[in-house]
């Protein structure tokens, strides 16, 4: 995966929420295009922080360690499952 691929995914109309799976097995759901920032070497995600009701954490996902990216099915999307 490269930066241009993510720019294309984030610009799709309508936006389709997707899951990023890292080589470590960790995964993150991207529910809105404004929660992702594309840099030259990584995808930076703003994710809800389970320890803070209004807080968020940042996840730096290096393109080198991305194992899979897939569109979320409607049954996998809920307001509280964003990371």
Question: Could you provide a short overview of the structure?
Answer:
It is built from one helix and six strands, in the order H-E-E-E-E-E-E.
Describe what this molecule looks like in 3D.
This protein has a domain at 1-46 and 58-66. The strands form two sheets. It has a three-stranded antiparallel sheet, with no helix packed on it. Strands 3-4-5 form a three-stranded antiparallel sheet, covered by helices on one side. It is globular and about 35 Å long. It has one helix at residues 3-11; strands at 18-22, 27-30, 36-38, 42-48, 56-62, 66-71. It is mainly beta and 83 residues long. The protein is built from one helix and six strands. The longest helix has 9 residues, at 3-11.
């Amino acid at each position: 995966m490269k930066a241009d691929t993510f720019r294309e995914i984030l610009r799709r109309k309508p936006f389709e929420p997707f899951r990023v799976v890292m080589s470590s097995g960790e995964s993150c759901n991207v529910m809105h295009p404004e929660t992702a920032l594309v840099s030259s070497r990584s995808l930076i995600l703003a994710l809800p922080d389970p320890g803070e009701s209004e807080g968020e954490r940042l996840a730096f996902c290096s393109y080198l360690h991305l194992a899979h990216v897939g569109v979320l099915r409607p049954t996998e999307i809920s307001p509280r499952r964003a990371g």
